[in-house]
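call fold target=Mechanosensitive ion channel protein MscS
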Amino acid sequence: MQIGTLTSLKAFEGISPADWLFAAVTMLLSYGILTGVLRFALGRFGALSRRLQSPAASVFAEVLGATRHFVIFVAALLIGLKMLDLGDKWDTAIVHGWTVLLCLQLALWVNRAVGAWSTRRLQHRATVPDNPVIVTMTAWTVRVLAWAVLLLAMLANFGVNITAFVASLGIGGVAVALAVQNVLSDLFASLAIGLDKPFEVGDFIVFGDVAGTIERIGLKTTRIRSLSGEEIVCGNTELLKNTLHNYKRMSERRIVFTFSVSYHTVPDKLAMVPALVKEVVQASGKTRFDRAHFKQFGASSLDFEVVYFVLSPDYNLYMDLQQDINLALMRAFLAQDIRFAIPASVQYFAQAPEPPKPPDVASATH
């Protein structure tokens, strides 16, 4: 039975059983050698990266780790089939198989390399100030281009007309772009955020009625943690349409505040007020005094305006300093007998004149 099977096999392909056996052994040996070389390379580059703390060796070892065993198996199978005299048709198929296999494995290596690069860029943002949007967009673009080029190369190897195929893809791409124009608008907005960097993760921004800290900048949306605790998700296009106030990038904070004193304050003591304010502001620390002026005559008070700078963008520090300044002003004014104004109004009521008295009757008869 076995002899008949081998004879029919030989009659079908014109190859002896010994040649088939030799091809099978060659395939197994090739698979073992390729697997062994891969394990050896992974071990060597892994040890080298740990010993030298080399990022390049670590990335290379990680890229080699993307080598798939089914790719090695198919490569060993193609090597074994090449040992047989199968004719021109099979030789052409083997060549096409090598092209597909190499393109697939190359795409897997590129994909792993881009992933390793983007991961390291995002993990080392403290030392390498890369914008996560740019890193993500670059990684996504490189992956798409790599797979597209390798796919076109495989199709060209099989005899497909690439020019007509690319033209049809272009027409289809225009239709898809029109259908998803809102999504593409947000994608380009995220790219603009990455290039222009109006804000980054961790910045405190204010726009419209929204105030919060940037938590994540995505390809379509930006997530903001508001002061009240909820998460606000805003489209990148809509976000860039607003005027943004980025308080994280303040080097110092300019403060303007006013207070009022009573109209009963004599001019000599009014003249002392700016100097008292300057002394109080400078004594609070972490401030730079700018000016203090008797600004105007109010409806029921004498109004002063003060401007100073807090040498830090921290809002809590500003509030602590302002509280200290207010308390110190109260103590200084109390010592100088200068009173803060209390809102008051004076109303005048007009009284009607009394009617004239009638003349005395007795005096009128005389």
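return ok
The beta strands are 204-207, 210-217, 221-226, 231-235, 245-246, 253-261, 287-297, 302-310. The first strand starts at residue 204 and ends at 207.
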